[in-house]
Each structure stands twice: as C-alpha cells, then as structure tokens.
Amino acid sequence: MASHSHRPILPWALLLVIISCSLGVNVSAATFSIAEATVTELQAAFKQNILNSTQLVEFYLSQILALNGKIRGIIEVNPDVFILAAQADAERKAGTANSTSGLHGIPVLLKDNISTQDMLNTTAGSFALLGSVVPRDAGVAEKLRAAGAIILGKAALSEWAHYRGSLPNGWSARGGQVLNPYVMAADPCGSSTGSAVSVASNMVAVSLGTETDGSILCPAYSNSVVGIKPTLGLTSRAGVVPISPRQDTVGPICRTVTDAVYVLDAIAGYDPYDSATEAALQYIPPGGYLQYLNASGLKGKRLGIIRNPFFIFPNGSFMAQAYQNLFQILSQNGAILVDNLQIANLSAIFSSQSGEGYALLTEFKIALNSYLSELVSSPIKTLADAIAFNLNYSTLEMIPQYGQTLFLEAENTTGITDPLYQEALASMKSLTENGIVKLMMDNNLDAIVTSNSTITPVLAIGGFPGITVPAGYSPNGVPFSICFSGLQGYEPRLIEIAYSFEQATMLRKPPSFLV
C-alpha cells in the first residue's frame, strides 16, 4: 500500500503525466466501443481479449482529460490506478478466484465522502479535510476491492454532502462547480453530482453516491443515469463522512439498471463497523439481486401513481404528454396502475413539521464529531473546528463564502436527550406509518411511481429504497426520469420494475454538452 506521506495534492498535474506516458486505446473489434459500454460488455471484451483493464483505464483517463475541465465531475484520480489495472490484468490471466466477479477489473469512482486507505484524499469536497488520514477503507470500498474493482478516483460533490449552508448544487471548494453534461446551464442536482455527471459523460461506467435525502436519486434524475438508493443499512456507511446514521445510505449510480445491480450485489451486506447492516441482512435475497433483472418484471406489478404533487403539469404540455406515454408503456408491459393516490400528510413531510430538519442537525453534530475523532490525523477534529476553518479560509478570498448556516445550527444542538429531538423522531415515525406505509399496504402496491426525485423526504425518514431510470429529454435537451420507490426490502421488485421499464423504452442517450 502506498505511503500516506505523498498524497497527491495536484491530481491533474499527475494525470497529465499518466496520460502522456500511456500508449492509448487500441480496441479493434468492429462491434465494440468502450464509450457507453456496460459492465457486461466490458467483461465480454475482457474474455475475448479485445480489451484489458489497463486499456480501459487509459480510455477513461483520456475522457477525463478531455471533459473534466468543462464539467468538473472528478476531484482526484488515483495515482495507483495503472498498478491496480495491471494487477487486475494479471489476475484475469492467471484465473484467480475473484477474476470471475462481475466488477473485476472495472474502474469505479467513489464520491469524495467515501474513505479509501490509499493515496487518495477523502475530504467531502472541503479543504478542511485535505490531507486527513483515514483508519481503514470504507466498508463499501473494501467490498469493491474484494470484488476486484479498481478504485479510479474521487467524484466531486456538493460540499459536505450539501450539509454546510446555502451552497449551489454540485459546488465544493475543492472541486468547483459541477455542470450538467446535457445542458450545462441546467441544475446538475446534488450532492452526488460528480458521480452522476462522470458516469453520464463516459469518464467512468460505475460510481458510488450517498444519499441522506435525495443525493443519489436527484443527480441521477438530472443527469440521465440510473441511481439506486438502498434500504437503510443494506450497504455499509462505515467510513463515510456522515450526516445522519438514521438516514445515510450508499448506492450505485450507473448508466444502466444492470450495471447498478452489479454494484449493489457487490456492496450490500454485513459490516462489523456498521450495526445497521446486521438488521438489514433480512432484506438481502439468497443469490443476490442479478436474478431480478427480468424483462417481464412489470407484469402483474401494482404501481401507485401519485399525481399530486408529482405529475402536476399544464394540460397538453410536453411533460404531461411524455409521462402519459410512459404510463401507457407501463400498462402495456403488464403493470397494474392504481391511479390518483395520495400520501397522507405529504405536506407535513415536505415542511418543517416533519421534524427531519431538526433531527438531522442533532445527528450531524454527533456523527461528524465521531467520524473526525477516529481519523488517524486530520486538520480538524470537531464540527467546531470545521466552522472555524471555514471562517478563516473564506477570508483568503480563494473561494466564495456561501455560508455555513447548517454547521452553526448543528453546533448549537444539545444532543439526543433534547425533547425537541425526541418529538422530531416521533413525528417522522407517525408520518411514515400513517403515510406511505399505510398507502402501500392498503392498496397492495409493489411500488410508487413519481415523475422525479422529490419523493425523497418520504423515503429518507422511513429508510426506504428508490430507483430512478432515464425517461426522456425535454425539448431543450434537459433530461427527465421516472422514479420507482417502495418500503424496506423492496429492492427485488423495484429492480424488476426498473429493468423491465428500461428494456421496454431504452430512452437514455449520451450527453450533448449544450451550453
């Protein structure tokens, strides 16, 4: 393992050296292109000896060099990436046990709040954590390495996973402003912005994001890729810069449902450093999730349509017609649409009445201080230190001072014994049980269908899963998607629904980089 004493502070200078020393991609098979290739196609190319991991890394690095200066999806590239690629190539040649894994030899990009014990930094996009040393790989990173995946680098994000203050979606001090590759003036959404943008732009095929409330589903929706927000605890959060252990999840962002399921299979499961993973083991099906990639998966599925507020469009508008067409596709493929449903108390969930905001402030202070205390070394050791850093750093006028209102409010919380915190927990539990849970049970639903990711507060406070799939493009080129969500452990049926919809439509197309 590389020494921490030589961390790459200027990754793009390093990347230029790497690119200039590589030989370039030479895949000659007429029917194969690395661009837009799925994990399955990449593995087939490996087996047919028309591609190896070193060539694949070279291609992605060339894409990064050409595109990242425009859209800023990646903060840092792993300086050991060619060593890891050569190791994967050697393992494949030798036929080692893990070389049959679906992710073996596949480069993966991790959001920059997911720890790796290597030459990469883990900073949540903040200079306050630059140079910090983590005690171990995050649980999901360890599982990816065990599957033979190559850690390509760290993705840009909304700083501190969009939990600092009034930051623009996709902005961080280290990474700058991430842009939407379809229409660069459009909202890229946050906070796993770089993970989604990089996958959409073919700078990598596979990435990980994190979600506390919307941070996987929203950027996936906005950048025309597939995002899976898993059931709470299905994937480990150990080693992830936290917001709330009660809501934080880690999930895949990829171009296809199949690729996302490969990743989910690799990262789901028990981690001794995250107690929530033990409770969630009951939801993982024997044989994993790939078995649910069923092209007929919509047949017989009961889908609840929540028109208000998720499908409110002017009559005759492009979006109204587009989603009506999508409903027809769902129905034609065997789904039973249960229309015009309502989630009780939805307005309360979307407002401060839910208690989510206050609970997150309390949990963030506790969780962040715990994470920082476990670091081997770090410029900051507490949330109070981070607040002081931001105040001092902004005076250098090197970055905009977008504020840190959430940091300040969190620092003023008094812990989990606070009666207001306990009231917030009780409120969220009641809203969940009397809202989405009652609706789905009363109507025997397999999933709820929404037009976008704005259902995420409902999923966040309940610890529930969701999958978003590309569904088309507006007349000006901005992507839109469809979101399928359910209750804890509903991943198998959500995967069947999402995959069947994807195969019936195949609506995703590469980005056009419109200004």
TrEMBL record:
<protein>
    <recommendedName>
        <fullName>Amidase domain-containing protein</fullName>
    </recommendedName>
</protein>
<dbReference type="InterPro" id="IPR023631">
    <property type="entry name" value="Amidase_dom"/>
</dbReference>
<keyword id="KW-0732">Signal</keyword>
<feature type="signal peptide">
    <location>
        <begin position="1"/>
        <end position="24"/>
    </location>
</feature>
<dbReference type="Pfam" id="PF01425">
    <property type="entry name" value="Amidase"/>
</dbReference>
<feature type="domain" description="Amidase">
    <location>
        <begin position="56"/>
        <end position="457"/>
    </location>
</feature>
<dbReference type="InterPro" id="IPR036928">
    <property type="entry name" value="AS_sf"/>
</dbReference>
